[in-house]
Design a protein that fits this description.
It is a single chain. The protein is an alpha+beta fold. Among the domains are: 138 residues, Beta Barrel (OB fold (Dihydrolipoamide Acetyltransferase, E2P)), CATH 2.40.50; 197 residues, BirA Bifunctional Protein, domain 2, CATH 3.30.930.10; 56 residues, no CATH class. Helix content is 31%, strand content 23%. Strand 12 and strand 13 form a beta hairpin. The radius of gyration is 29 Å and the shape is elongated. The two termini are 57 Å apart. It binds one RNA strand of 76 nucleotides through strand 1, strand 2, strand 3 and helix 4.
Length: 564
RNA sequence: GCGCCUCUAGCUCAAUUGGCAGAGCAACGGACUCUUAAUCCGCAGGUUCUGGGUUCGAGUCCCAGGGGGCGCACCA
């Protein structure tokens, strides 16, 4: 058993015994007196990966391995005990214990006196302590960042949802599992891309700023393009541009992108959310059902290693094939009441009211039918199930059903009582599409703000000819909720929409009046809470855009705290 | 937008019927040569979300406003 290296010089003599190790190269230390923080630090091992390295499984308590490593991370626990000290060093792979000894570790007292949350880089030998914990016995170490603020109760973390969402960086460190959720999110996106690429799909990016917000029933956010002297809308769907690309010859195309809907916030709705849309030429909605179940199951298998999950305490089996059933079949199963477009509209309305579903005499039968389904059946469907064949009346972009008049070839995959997406055999006929959108325009004129807008550029594209095409939209956030067993969409969105904390709007107004908009200044002066200062800094980019050119006459709230 | 609940130290939470606003963790100072939410000693920390009101007296009760949670509405 080798003696522990006592100095950096001695440490370097260890190199021959660990071939992969190179001397740590950090720079800047000691050069600038005012900032001893180095500009870089080289690690040889990740903390969590080292902690679970099987090569050290047989290392007995009290033994040294002879392997020298360099690790970095944040101090999450610190137990200084006179002339020895223990610290938990955590990076994004996990944690390894640092073991410091006054006669081995340089600047021992300083290390033992660091605060929780500080970032530290350390070099030393891998050892197992007498109490059996695999550790790095620190010889050299360097402070990489000081944590001037703490991360809450070290055992209980932070619970306040407001704090968790507004200061996600704190949440990520303070609460076990939060980072894992977002690592899964990243893997889900990667898996979707890989699986679709394997099937010959290409990924594209289409505009976020739209002159006409269409492709879904939703109210848009409005913004203003100064150079064009024109209002624009943030997209509410990806659909119309992607179909234009099918017209252009991209036979299998998809986009994963943020869409924005000017609606309420709830545990299942964030005003900006991530949508996957894909279009496959020569396919119908049956093909898309097969693709959907294979994609979702494939992602689950790739990310979680299984297709049978537990969601909110209930088993959920994503293994294909999924059940296929019509909307009417499912309503009949759930309520025992026969519904459908074959009934006279009056009778359908009567049955709706019988089921406790409020409908207006102005509502068309299609709307009534969907209303019945959504109010009585959808939330009870655990699924997965493909809910098939929606009324044409409420589906302006879907193609007529090949054998059921009044219906379109459309389905929604429903899992755990929620729609995961929406898909159709796409309507390709430009004349029929125009008629459908004109119907929507009439509804809009009659006061339905969510009726779909008529997009001439889309219609013109269809006139060039779109082949039979199957399309699918998936709510990626909701898919991630299923795979991470989360009930609230805010748990899978890093920075969910929150109301701006107001209260000092008067200061914001005066600040923007003297032209400090764009440096995060509007709220800075007036807010005593430190957290709010970071908030305004985070709004910088948005403010700069808004502040370009003329001074924006923003209202206090909009001006001071815009989130993106 | 409506209803119910909620807001106390940096964090997690106490505070009797309306009667001096507290603890643990973190931070700060100190002790300790194998800790595992270490332990021990010490110190500091407050616009009880904001503004009114009732009262001899308000964290507590009332009114208004703000933030948050949940539900409804909205939402394919």
């Amino acid at each position: 058993m080798a003696h522990p290296p006592r100095s950096a010089a001695a440490l370097r003599t260890e190199r021959s015994r660990c071939g992969s190790w190179a001397p740590p190269t950090w720079s800047g230390g000691g050069v600038l007196v005012s900032s001893p923080i180095p500009y870089r630090f080289e690690t040889t091992r990740a903390a969590g990966e080292l902690a679970s390295d099987k090569a050290f499984e047989d290392l007995a308590p009290g033994e040294s391995s002879g392997v020298v490593v360099s690790v970095a991370g944040r101090l999450m626990r610190l137990r200084a005990q006179g002339r020895v000290a223990f610290a938990e060093l955590r990076d994004w792979t996990g944690a390894i214990q640092l073991f410091a000894q006054s006669d081995v570790t340089e600047r021992f007292d300083e290390l033992a006196g660091r605060a929780l949350g500080d970032w530290v880089g350390a070099v030393g030998e891998v050892v197992r302590t007498k109490r059996g914990e695999l550790s790095v016995r620190v010889v050299e170490w360097v402070l990489l960042a000081e944590a001037r603020r703490g991360f809450g109760d070290k055992w209980r973390g932070v619970n306040d949802p407001d704090l968790r969402y507004r200061q996600r960086e704190v949440d990520l460190w303070a609460n076990e599992g939060v980072r894992d959720t977002f690592l899964v999110r990243s893997k889900v996106l990667a898996a979707i891309r890989r699986l679709l690429s394997e099937r010959g799909f290409i990924e594209v990016e289409t505009p976020v700023l739209h002159q006409v917000a269409s492709g879904a029933h939703a109210r848009p956010f409005v913004t203003h393009y100064n150079s064009l002297h024109s209002d624009f809308y943030l997209r509410i769907a990806l659909e119309l541009h992607l179909k234009r690309l099918v017209v252009g010859g991209f036979e299998r195309v998809f986009e994963i992108g943020r869409v924005f809907r000017n609606e309420g916030i709830s545990p299942r709705h964030n005003p900006e959310f991530t949508e996957l849309e894909l279009y496959q030429a020569y396919a119908d909605y049956h093909d898309v059902m097969a693709l959907t179940e294979e994609l979702v199951a494939g992602v689950s298998l790739e990310v979680l290693g299984k297709t049978t999950l537990t969601y909110q305490g209930r088993p959920l089996d994503l293994t294909p094939p999924w059940r296929r059933a019509t909307l009417e079949e499912l309503v009949a199963e759930q309520t025992g009441v026969e519904v459908g477009l074959h009934l006279p509209p009056e009778e359908l309305r009567r049955r709706a009211r019988e089921l406790g579903v409020a409908v207006s005499d102005d509502d068309g039968p299609g709307k009534v039918l969907v209303e019945i389904y959504e109010k009585t059946t959808e939330s009870s469907l655990w699924g997965p199930v493909f809910v098939m064949d929606y009324p044409k009346e409420v589906s302006p972009l879907a193609r007529d059903h090949r054998s059921r008049p009044g219906y379109v070839e459309r389905f929604e995959p429903v899992i755990a009582g929620r729609e995961l997406g929406n898909a159709f055999s796409e309507l390709a006929d430009p004349d029929e599409q125009r008629r459908r959108l004109l119907d929507q325009a009439a509804e809009r004129a009659a006061g339905d703000e969510e009726a779909m807008a008529l997009d001439e550029e889309f219609l013109r594209a269809l006139e060039h000819g779109m082949p039979p095409t199957g399309g699918l939209g998936i709510g990626v956030d909701r898919l991630i909720m299923l795979l991470t067993d989360q009930a609230n969409i805010r748990e899978v969105v890093l920075f969910p929409a929150l109301r701006p904390p107001s209260g000092r709007g008067d200061v914001a107004v005066s600040a923007s009046a003297v032209g400090t908009v764009g440096v995060g200044g509007p709220s800075e002066g007036g807010l005593s809470e430190e957290g709010s200062g970071e908030e305004s800094a985070g709004a910088d980019s948005g403010e700069e855009l808004a502040g370009e050119g003329s001074a924006p006459p923003a209202t206090p709230n909009e001006g001071s705290r815009r989130r993106d």
